């Protein structure tokens, strides 16, 4: 069940759905305009969000920004009668999908050839069922590094940050509310033979995020987290990045060193993070051992 939740008078969001990979959708409410963050994974998702806004008497957005090109953040665009904004790279990536067909056969072929990944093909089938009304729509306004939008009484800073998950990733900083919408930026790269994090990209990304003074961080497939929770997540990524480099991708050595550091057994999330960094180390051409 998706619900519309309020963080402040100026910011609401729709909770995510894991079965169909629907990410969080946000709205920033200015005195003059409202800005929607991410377009949703389908027209149904986008319309559901707009309807929830209406029920809660929140002004309909006239602008939408995409955090990155992935289907679950961009396919709802065709249902939105508003001006769309994205990074230049996001537009380029979306453009590549224009010629695609979305039948089971076409999806399976793309999985076979490595253009698509099985995870996304499966959730697309789950979200759309038999009725694949997918109309790839391109964003209208693009920017390269940064863009500021004054919505009246509240400002949004859109910053291209890249990262492993999607090199076109943009974060949205809602300055007056100290909310930082991270999208999927800190997640691993899933469009790869092996899910992975790389040391360099992770550290660069975390440094960029640290430039923003935020109290609430929004992770698109999870929930809004506090500064403390974000810092714990970021510290895990930084520590494992450092250990991956130090122990040249050797699993046992990294686990041992991190265990000694935290003085307890490691949980599943931490072990998975280590695995992803080792994958990234190998894919980057690093020699393990
Ligand atoms: Zn994504």
Description:
The protein is α/β, with parallel strands linked by helices. The protein folds into 2 domains: 4-226, Ribonuclease Z/Hydroxyacylglutathione hydrolase-like (Metallo-beta-lactamase, Chain A, 4-Layer Sandwich), CATH 3.60.15.10; 237-283, no CATH class. Helix content is 36%, strand content 20%. The protein is built from 9 helices and 13 strands. The strands form 2 sheets. It has a 7-stranded mixed sheet. Strands 8-9-10-11-12-13 form a 6-stranded mixed sheet. Helix 7 (227-246) packs across helix 8. The mean pLDDT is 97. The structure holds zinc ion. Zinc ion (ZN) is lined by residues 68, 70, 165-166, 184.
Number of helical segments with 4 or more residues: 9
Q: What name goes with the CATH superfamily of the largest domain?
A: Ribonuclease Z/Hydroxyacylglutathione hydrolase-like
- Approximate helicity band: 25-40%
Mean pLDDT value: 97
Reconstruct the topology from this structure:
Layout: E1 4-8, E2 11-14, E3 25-29, E4 34-37, H1 43-55, E5 63-65, H2 71-74, E6 83-87, H3 88-95, H4 104-113, H5 118-128, E7 141-143, E8 146-150, E9 155-160, E10 170-174, E11 179-183, H6 199-209, E12 216-219, E13 224-226, H7 227-246, H8 251-262, H9 268-283
Helix pairs in contact: 6-7, 7-8, 7-9
Bound molecules: zinc ion.
Summarize the structure.
By secondary structure, this protein is of the alpha/beta class. The protein has helices at about 45-55, 70-75, 90-95, 105-115, 120-130, 200-210, 225-245, 250-260, 270-285; strands at about 5-10, 10-15, 25-30, 35, 65, 85, 140-145, 145-150, 155-160, 170-175, 180-185, 215-220, 225.
């Amino acid at each position: 069940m998706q619900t519309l939740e309020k963080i402040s008078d100026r910011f609401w969001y729709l909770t995510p759905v894991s079965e169909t990979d629907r990410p969080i959708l946000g709205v920033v409410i200015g005195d003059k305009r409202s800005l929607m963050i991410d377009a949703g994974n389908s027209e149904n998702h986008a319309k559901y969000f707009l309807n929830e806004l209406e029920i809660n008497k929140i002004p309909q957005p006239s602008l939408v920004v995409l955090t990155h090109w992935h289907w679950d953040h961009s396919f709802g665009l065709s249902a939105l009668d508003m001006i769309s904004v994205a990074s230049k790279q996001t537009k380029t990536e979306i453009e590549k999908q224009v010629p695609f067909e979305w039948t089971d056969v076409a999806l399976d072929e793309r999985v076979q050839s490595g253009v698509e990944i099985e995870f996304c093909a499966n959730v697309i089938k789950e979200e759309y069922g038999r009725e694949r009304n997918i109309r790839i729509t391109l964003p209208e306004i693009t920017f390269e590094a940064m863009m500021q939008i004054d919505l009246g009484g509240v400002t949004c800073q859109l910053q291209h940050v890249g990262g492993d998950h999607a090199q076109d990733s943009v974060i949205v900083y809602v300055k007056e509310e100290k909310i930082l919408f991270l999208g999927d930026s800190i997640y691993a790269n899933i469009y790869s033979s092996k899910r992975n994090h790389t040391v360099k990209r992770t550290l660069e990304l975390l440094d960029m995020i640290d430039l923003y003074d935020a109290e609430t961080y929004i992770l698109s497939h999870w929930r809004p987290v506090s500064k403390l929770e974000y810092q714990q997540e970021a510290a895990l990524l930084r520590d494992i990045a450092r250990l991956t480099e130090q122990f040249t991708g050797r699993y046992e050595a990294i686990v041992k060193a991190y265990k000694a550091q935290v003085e307890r057994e490691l949980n599943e999330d931490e072990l998975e993070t280590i695995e992803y960094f080792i994958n990234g180390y190998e894919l980057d051409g690093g020699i393990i051992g």
